[in-house]
Structures are given as C-alpha cells and as structure tokens.
Design a protein that fits this description.
The chain is mainly alpha-helical. It has one domain. It is 69% helix and 0% strand. It contains eight helices and no strands. α2 runs antiparallel to α4, α3 runs parallel beside α5 and α4 crosses α8. The protein starts with 34 loop residues before the first helix and ends with a helix.
C-alpha cells in the first residue's frame, strides 16, 4: 500500500473528465502494408551486387571441399556442381530477386574461379605432401610458395603429369554444373 508521500505511484485525480465513447471520432480501418511500402525498392544494380557479394561465399567453401576430396584420391569435380547450386541459392537469398543476365555471368565467373582455385589448391597440397611438409606449415612458408610458383610456371613435366587429371576435372566440372547453369540461363532470359 502507498501513502500520500510515495512518489512511485501517481495518485488518482478526480478533476479529470473523460470523454464519452460516442464523442470520439471513428478510427480509420488499418490498411495492409504491401511489400513496396515496407522497404524502399532496390535498384537492379543493388540487387545484383548484393546477390553476387553473398554468392562469393561459396568460393572458399568450394576450394576446401574440393581439396579434401582431391586428397582422398578422387576427382573432385562434383564440387563444381555444388558450387553452382550454392552460388545460385546464395544469389537468390542476397538479391531477393530472380537471376538477371548480369547475375548469370557473375555466377559463371564464380564457378570458374572456384574450379581454378580448387585445382591450384589440390596441386599445392600434393606439393606439400611430396616435400613432406605439414600443410599448416606449408601454407605459411614462403619457400614452399616459391617452389610451387616455380613448378607451376616452368615445370613442363609437372604439367604433363597433371594434364589428364586437370582435363578430367574440367570436363566433369563442366558436365556437373551444365544443367544448373542452363536452367539459370533460361531464367535470366525470361
């Protein structure tokens, strides 16, 4: 119970006059908000940029998964299909729109970059195991990177040894993501 000196509760006032319910004007009926009222629309460039930016997250994931499968001794080109599907999904989440022509070419670039980086990462892990350096140490060692660059740019024997694996990986990568990219191409033209 509170007394007159308690300042936590405002005492009841008898001098207030309440209006009769009939005297109040009728409130207007609430109007439902549409999607374009809730948020200002994004321009086409903003949508494509947001979608591609989010789709870029698939590159490091694809490289890591490819490298793990490569080190298990398999041709890891199934990863390119996963990269294509993941890039399309992430684009749609980021842009909240269908795929445009510009986004289609951006997704193709993401898939190609992921496949190239994945092949290079697989070769790097092969080099690290060939010179018997733990992968964690090889990643941080500039000497290993120098050896890798020298072999990559000037070792014809290495390329002859890797050529069948690289060609098979590229062919299967193309076949793996062809249907996904064809579907996206049709969507971008619609």
């Amino acid at each position: 119970m509170t007394d007159a000196t308690d300042d936590r509760v405002e005492p009841a006032r008898d001098d207030r006059v309440e209006a009769a319910p009939q005297a109040l004007p009728a409130a207007p009926a609430p109007e439902p908000l549409t999607a374009h009222d809730a948020m200002p629309p994004f321009s086409q460039g903003e949508r494509v940029g947001r979608g591609i930016a989010l789709a870029l997250l698939v590159i490091p994931v694809g490289v890591v998964v490819w490298t793990v499968i490569w080190n298990l001794g398999f041709i890891a080109s199934i990863v390119s299909w996963g990269v294509a599907v993941g890039a399309v999904w992430l684009y749609r989440v980021g842009s909240k729109a269908r795929i445009t022509r510009a986004a289609f070419w951006g997704i193709i670039a993401i898939v190609v970059v992921t496949v190239v980086l994945s092949l290079l990462a697989g070769m790097f892990t092969d080099l690290a195991s060939a010179i018997e350096v733990p992968l964690q140490d090889a990643i941080a060692d500039p000497k290993v990177w120098g050896v890798f660059a020298d072999n990559l740019l000037s070792n014809g024997d290495m390329w002859q040894a890797y050529l069948p694996q690289v060609l098979l990986a590229l062919v299967f990568a193309f076949l793996g993501c062809f249907t996904t990219l064809r579907r996206v191409s049709r969507e971008s033209r619609a």
